[in-house]
Amino acid sequence: MIKFLLDYSSGVPVYRQIIDQIRFGITSGQLKPGEQLPTVRALAVELKVSLNTISKAYRELEIKNILETQQGTGTFINNTEQAVPDKEREGKLEEICVQFSSVALSYGFTLGEIVQELKNIETSKKL
Amino acid sequence: MIKFLLDYSSGVPVYRQIIDQIRFGITSGQLKPGEQLPTVRALAVELKVSLNTISKAYRELEIKNILETQQGTGTFINNTEQAVPDKEREGKLEEICVQFSSVALSYGFTLGEIVQELKNIETSKKL
DNA sequence: AGCATTGTACTGCTGTTATACTACAAAGAT
DNA sequence: ATCTTTGTAGTATAACAGCAGTACAATGCT
User: Fold this and answer.
1) pLDDT tens digits for B13-33?
2) Cβ burial A75-90 (10 Å sphere, 16+ → b, else e)
3) A77, β-bridge pairs
4) Interface test with A, best of B93, B95, B103, B120 (most A CBs within 10 A)
5) Is the CB of B72 under 7 A from strand C?
6) Which residues contact A109 (CB under 8 A, 6 or more apart)?
């Protein structure tokens, strides 16, 4: 079962943090296709947020075909894996990296620092 | 002169992104004490945001004694050194890297690929 | 059939973010 | 003195985020 962590000081909306963590959890293998997510009510209580906030996150992921919801039963990770063409994949990688590095540099961080931090994240994830 | 970059998809308020980039810009040496910042009107036009938004960011930084404003003249970096604490700087680095990696991983990229791409960007910049 | 569980939908409310627009105030140059 | 540039202050408006509360709908279990 995935553990959600909210950062209220980041300014990032709660429902978006939940969305990101689910997506991240899927690609990192923490969440597997078919697995059931916490119920909207359970997660609302656990994270001490409103039922609507969880519902909003789940609904957006359902629209993107990442989750599948069954009323009365629960919410599940969708089975469909969508393959992306190599060319598009490469372009996307460059695009998001360029954009990210621009932002990070504007905060005054060097690419060296960024790369190091990403490696830290990588190692801490494997534990 | 510092270059501001806004990320509208991050969920972080524009005025806060400006605040952060100025603060971290000072710490990294991109902005030096006494240096003049863009005028509220100029920056509003450049970033295509409202005058109020820039003003809000500048005002908050003035309250914190990071900026000094002189009506009719402009806004300047305060001389008193106000380096961002190491802990906060580290935290910010981690925050943006975690968020970025979350997005990048959700696209199916590995951290290895991402690091490689960032290094490519680094070398291509030096040419 | 009845019940509990689950997701959905809605209203009302608060606070934040951001916009547009207008007007005023202080400094400097002419 | 006048004009321009600068920051400041205000109103009004809209969108979004989040909460509380209520009610409804579908599923599955007993």
Assistant:
1) 999 999 989 988 888 888 999
2) bbbbeeeeeeeeeeee
3) A67
4) B93
5) yes
6) B24, B28, B93, B96
**Residues packed against strand D, CB within 7 Å:** A 13-16, 48-53, 70-73; B 11, 37, 39-42, 51-52, 55, 58-59, 62, 69-75
Domain map (residue ranges) of chain A: 14-77, 86-125
Distance CA A102, CA A99 (A): 5
d(CA B69, CA B114) in angstroms, rounded, equals 41
Cα separation, A8 vs A38, in Å, equals 21
Give the pairing of strands B74-77 and A67-70. Answer: unpaired
pLDDT (tens digit per residue) in B76-112: 999 876 667 888 889 889 888 887 887 787 677 889 9
> How far is Cα A93 from Cα B105, in angstroms, rounded to an integer?
10
Alpha-carbon gap, residue B109 to B103, rounded angstroms: 9
The Cα–Cα gap between B89 and A7 comes to 16
Q: Which chain A residues are within 8 Å of B103, Cβ to Cβ?
A: 20, 96
- CA atoms of B75 and B71, how far apart (whole Å): 8
Q: What is the CATH number of domain A14-77?
A: 1.10.10.10
Taking only the tens place, the pLDDT of each residue in A96-112 is 888 788 888 888 899 99
Residue-level pLDDT at A83:
45
